């Protein structure tokens, strides 16, 4: 028991310190918490977005965009916010110096993933709340299925971010890779065209991507259906593959 206490104490200190630094990073908070909500408010303020669209199965565009903004919080946190922080620590030798102390570098990575995961979940909750309060968007009718799809999607986003951090040698490279991945991820999430409104051939391709599958799974749970097992399987495969690749290729120095 005493060994566990000694081991956990430094980890808690790292988590507390990283959380304090994260709160001071306005850019990260804006990307994860405010940007998705701002997009939802702008789109929801367009009258045509509040009208029922037969092409979307009888729902409104604003209804379809709430899951999209939830995914935007994940993309911003996992792809753009977390990787530069971890890469910066490696670039400045922080991880190398930590390896000589009782605090293991893995504690820092775990803290970053926990903090960004919590911020993503908070961003998702805010998107759902704003959608409900401002535009009368129904809350997820299949709550258990929604939470499962959300959890898998968060794991995918953080694993993708960890993979980017594992391959990028410098912060500049990390930012460049994040930017390159950011726009295809947004497209697959349905930012420009909701996945359910895409042509069938394109939609089937997009559904094989992590955020395309996540968009469909979240939409189905919002409507009251259990997310398609094919979408959940795609998310699970991506989560295992990305996390495994990140663990294999990650370097502390």
Structural write-up:
This protein has 253 residues and is mostly helical. Helices cover 77% and strands 2% of the residues. It has helices at residues 2-24, 26-44, 61-91, 94-98, 105-135, 143-167, 171-189, 200-206, 210-222, 229-249; strands spanning 52-53, 59-60. Strands 1-2 form a two-stranded antiparallel sheet. β1 and β2 (59-60) form a beta hairpin. α1 (2-24) crosses α5 (105-135), α3 (61-91) runs parallel beside α6 and α3 runs antiparallel to α7 (171-189). It is elongated. Residues 1-6 have low confidence and may be disordered. It is a multi-pass membrane protein. Keywords: Antibiotic resistance, Cell membrane, Membrane, Transmembrane, Transmembrane helix, Transport.
Q: What is the spatial order of strands in the main beta sheet?
A: 1-2
- Note the run of SSEs as H and E: HHEEHHHHHHHH
Q: On the 0-100 scale, what is the average pLDDT?
A: 87
Low-confidence stretches: 1-6
What is the gyration radius calculated from CA atoms? 19 Å
Question: How many β-strand stretches?
Answer: 2
Binned strand content: under 5%
Question: Sheet bearing the most strands, described?
Answer: 2 strands, antiparallel
Number of domains: 1
| H/I helix tally | 10
The first-to-last residue Cα distance is: 32 Å
Give the helix/strand class. Answer: mainly alpha
So what's the overall shape?
Answer: elongated
**Proportion in helices:** over 70%
């Amino acid at each position: 028991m005493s060994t566990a206490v000694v081991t956990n104490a430094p980890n808690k200190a790292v988590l507390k310190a990283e959380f304090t630094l994260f709160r001071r990073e306005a850019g990260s908070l804006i990307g994860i918490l405010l940007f998705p909500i701002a997009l939802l408010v702008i789109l929801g303020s367009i009258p045509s977005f509040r009208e029922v669209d037969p092409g979307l199965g009888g729902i409104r565009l604003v209804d379809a965009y709430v899951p999209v903004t939830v995914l935007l919080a994940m993309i911003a946190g996992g792809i753009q916010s977390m990787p530069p922080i971890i890469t910066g620590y490696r670039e400045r030798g922080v991880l190398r110096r930590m390896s000589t102390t009782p605090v293991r570098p893995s504690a820092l990575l775990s803290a970053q993933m926990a903090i960004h995961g919590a911020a993503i979940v908070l961003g998702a909750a805010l998107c759902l709340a704003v959608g409900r309060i401002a535009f009368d968007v129904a809350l997820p009718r299949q709550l258990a299925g929604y939470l499962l799809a959300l959890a898998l999607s968060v794991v995918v986003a953080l694993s993708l971010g960890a993979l980017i951090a594992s391959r990028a040698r410098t912060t500049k490279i990390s930012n460049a890779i994040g930017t390159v991945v950011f726009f295809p991820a947004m497209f697959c999430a349905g930012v420009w065209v909701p996945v359910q409104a895409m042509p069938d051939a394109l939609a089937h391709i997009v559904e094989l991507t992590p955020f395309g599958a996540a968009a469909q799974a979240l939409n189905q749970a919002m409507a009251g259906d259990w997310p398609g097992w094919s979408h959940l399987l795609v998310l699970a495969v991506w989560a295992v593959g990305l996390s495994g690749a990140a663990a294999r290729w990650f370097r502390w120095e």
